[in-house]
Automatic annotation (TrEMBL):
Pfam families: Alpha-amylase, CBM_48
Keywords: Glycosidase, Hydrolase
Gene Ontology molecular function terms on file: amylo-alpha-1,6-glucosidase activity
Gene Ontology BP, a term: glycogen catabolic process
The encoding gene: glgX
Glycosyl hydrolase family 13 catalytic domain location: 164-569
Protein name from the UniProt record: Glycogen debranching enzyme GlgX
Family annotation (SMART domains): Aamy
Family: Belongs to the glycosyl hydrolase 13 family.
TM ranges: none
């Protein structure tokens, strides 16, 4: 093929009318060679020197080239680890803008830029060719966008019910999903899966990472692999293993289209804080060999070593404008080409950390906020990392919502029966205004969750006191040590009916609080069906039935209970109010008021009763969202009575002027509760009841 100068933008491989343009950023390279491979990816058939350079972007155009071409780069430059440079032209490198990877990674010493057996480690230089062991990038024509329409949904985050799940794990064992589609994007979009999500009431699926990722060498050596996928290497390529037999990346957009037709949005969990290349002793797949000093944050006084604010060996350098451009281009690609509705940013404090520390006005946050595409999608931060000042819950820009671990821990401890938690429970149930209201955000800034992929499942939370992670091969040292869990008498599964009854109630109690709290509820897939990981609270490397959704062992009574809760949340707008509620119980307005079990308004002294484990709350609101300026004609009220004590207690319904004739909507008792003539009701230990009433002006 003839080669010409080409053009610097857009970066990556771009199909045009006369061929394919290739463009790669490297500030410190001395020469860049484009390598073309045969259709198998095994034979390097041609090399083209990219002689043109525009503002540190190397580029060329291959005339008459077509989509489907397999390629990689060899980048020349100094190998000076102490200065941050790790160029090694013997290593084939993946294009950071690759939209599809073809072939499997084969773990081999040639993947390292240095001799892994040398006494001076990464200061040595390795001359083995890594091309036989590395997948190849494939040139993609994105014309499929026009063939797969995606109907917009625009569901407000405040009204969303998020369902966190794994592409492979959710459909891998479903007996009604075609075997060729199990564990793939097509499997997730199959009718049995979509029907399940719709019947449950889910409005938004949040997927664990789907960017192309590699297994860590230490896992490969143990015979394990990275199941969760938090080890990205290709920010624009769907993970190849999640594509069905055809291997067409359009399968991802088709999945989004199918979910949208079912009324379900899609959020991606994205990892831009680190890459699969690890620390200074890690392999060379892409960024390290293209321009290590630009793509990674390095120690200022010894650039041989990576800054490790992630705990994963390296930290991606979003302070560099070209690296920031890559991340922004990736995000826009997944929105505009693949059709996703938003993102959850893993270890997001890394993304907002400038040289002087975390800054909600950092370049990354400013870039997203001003972007005309990205400012319209859902943005969720995991508001912590292990770096200095890494815990930043409540300190993110107004465009972001945040995973609220304070909510998680408060709910777990409260229902476990810990003392002195009434005020903390109330703050979290109210939407955590103490964290999010200061900069004008509403309750939707709080992503509420009891469990997530990281930690115990809900079933295990009420079945295990301790982690059981031996299968991970780290002598049970990995994973959270404190889980705020309780096994209620026996560690693990039990045949004791009394213990199982308590566990069943506790699962329902926790799910009820999650779906009735102000803020945005997020369910972990399987919590609604009593899935277990056998006490493993860090199943990141368990790509097997332990980590997959078990469709043969489903607690359908709990599934139906969860669906009922979701239906109630959708029915009552005051459960997902746009602004924080600061009024007590109100007529024709949104109100929230707290009562003790005697039906009295909670006073300061009541809140300070350290050993009290009972509480009631009334939420009031309009029957429907009224137009601006409209006069509401009716109000509904919900009364939630909670007993987290080990003993039964008698509750008195609060006596309110406008709200009477309460009837029970839902409970976690053994049998239907009865309200006596004195408006009293008995709650057994560790249970709750939800009542409802309605008031209109005609009353």
């Amino acid at each position: 093929m003839d080669v010409s100068a080409g053009y610097p933008y857009p970066l990556g491989a771009t199909v045009d009318d006369s061929g394919v343009n290739f463009s790669l950023f490297s500030a410190h390279a001395t020469k860049v060679v484009l390598c073309i491979f045969d259709p198998t990816g095994d034979v390097e058939v041609a090399q083209y020197i990219m002689s043109e350079q525009t503002r540190q972007i190397w580029h060329c155009h291959l005339d008459d080239a077509q989509a489907g071409l397999l390629y990689g780069y060899r980048v020349f430059g100094p190998y000076q680890p102490q200065l941050g440079h790790r160029f090694n032209h013997h290593k084939l490198l993946l294009d950071p803008y690759a939209k599809k990877l073809v072939g499997e990674l084969v773990y081999h010493s040639a993947l390292y830029g240095y001799d892994i057996k040398a006494s001076d480690a990464d200061l040595s230089f390795d001359t083995q060719d890594s091309a036989p062991y590395l997948p190849k990038a494939q040139v993609i024509d994105c014309g499929f966008v026009n063939d797969i329409p995606i109907a917009p949904l625009n569901i407000s985050l405040a009204r969303s019910i998020i369902f966190e799940t794994h592409v492979k794990g959710f459909s891998q064992q479903h007996p009604e999903v075609n075997s060729t589609q199990q564990g793939t994007f097509a499997g997730l979009a199959s009718q049995p899966i979509v029907d399940y999500l719709q019947n449950l009431g889910i409005t938004c699926v949040e997927l664990l990472p789907v960017h192309g990722f590699f297994d860590e060498p230490f896992l490969i050596e143990k015979g394990l692999n990275n199941y969760w996928g938090y080890n990205s290497i290709a920010f624009m390529a769907p993970h190849s293993a999640y594509l069905s037999a055809e291997g067409d990346i359009a399968e991802f957009r088709q999945m989004v289209s199918t979910l949208h037709r079912a009324g379900i949005e899609l959020i991606l969990d994205v990892v831009f804080n680190h890459t699969a290349e690890g620390n200074h002793l890690g392999p060379t797949y892409s960024f390290r060999g293209i321009d290590n000093a630009s793509y990674y944050r390095l120690l200022p006084n010894d650039k041989r070593f990576n800054i490790n604010d992630t705990g994963c060996g390296n930290t991606f350098n979003l302070n560099h404008p070209q690296v920031l451009m890559l991340v922004m281009d990736s995000l826009r690609y997944w929105v505009e080409v693949m059709g996703v509705d938003g993102f959850r940013f893993d270890l997001a404090s890394c993304l907002g950390r400038e040289a002087y520390g975390f800054d909600p006005g950092s370049g990354f946050f400013d870039a997203i906020t001003q972007d005309p595409v990205l400012c319209k999608v859902k943005l969720i931060a995991e508001p912590w990392d292990i770096g200095p000042g890494g815990y930043q819950l409540g300190n993110y820009p107004v465009a972001f919502s945040e995973w609220n671990d304070r909510y998680r821990d408060a709910m777990r401890r409260f229902w476990r029966g810990d003392s002195g938690l009434l005020p903390e429970f109330a703050k979290r149930f109210h939407g955590s205004s103490d964290f999010f209201e200061h900069n004008g955000r509403g309750p939707a800034a709080s992503i509420n969750f009891i469990t997530s992929h990281d930690g115990f499942s809900l079933h295990d939370l009420v079945s295990y006191n301790d982690r059981h992670n031996l299968a991970n091969g780290e002598d049970n040292r990995d994973g959270h040590q404190e889980n705020c869990s309780n096994n209620y008498g026996i560690e693990g599964e039990s045949d004791d009916e009394a213990i199982n009854a308590i566990r069943s109630r506790q699962k329902r109690n926790l799910l009820t609080c999650l779906l009735l709290s102000q803020g945005v509820p997020m369910l972990l897939a399987g919590d609604e069906s009593s899935q277990t990981q056998q006490g493993n609270n860090n199943a990141y490397c368990q790509d097997n039935p332990l980590g997959w959704f078990d469709w043969q062992q489903i607690d359908w009574s709990l599934v139906n209970f969860t669906a009922q809760l979701i239906s109630l949340r959708k029915r009552f707008p005051m459960l997902c109010h746009q602004a924080f509620i600061h009024k007590p119980e109100a007529v024709f307005d949104n109100g929230l008021a707290w009562f003790n079990r005697q039906g009295e308004v909670m006073t300061k002294s009541h809140w300070c009763e350290h050993h009290t484990r009972t509480l009631s709350v009334i939420l009031t609101g309009n029957l429907a969202d009224a137009d601006v300026g409209a006069v509401a004609e009716s109000t509904e009220a919900l009364l939630l009575m909670i007993n987290v004590d080990e003993l039964p207690h008698q509750f008195t319904l609060p006596k309110l002027t406008h709200f009477r004739h309460w009837h029970c909507l839902l409970h976690t008792q053994y049998s239907e509760p009865e309200v006596d003539a004195d408006q009293q009701v008995n709650l057994i230990s560790r249970s709750l009841m939800l009542f409802h009433t309605e008031f209109t002006r005609s009353n």
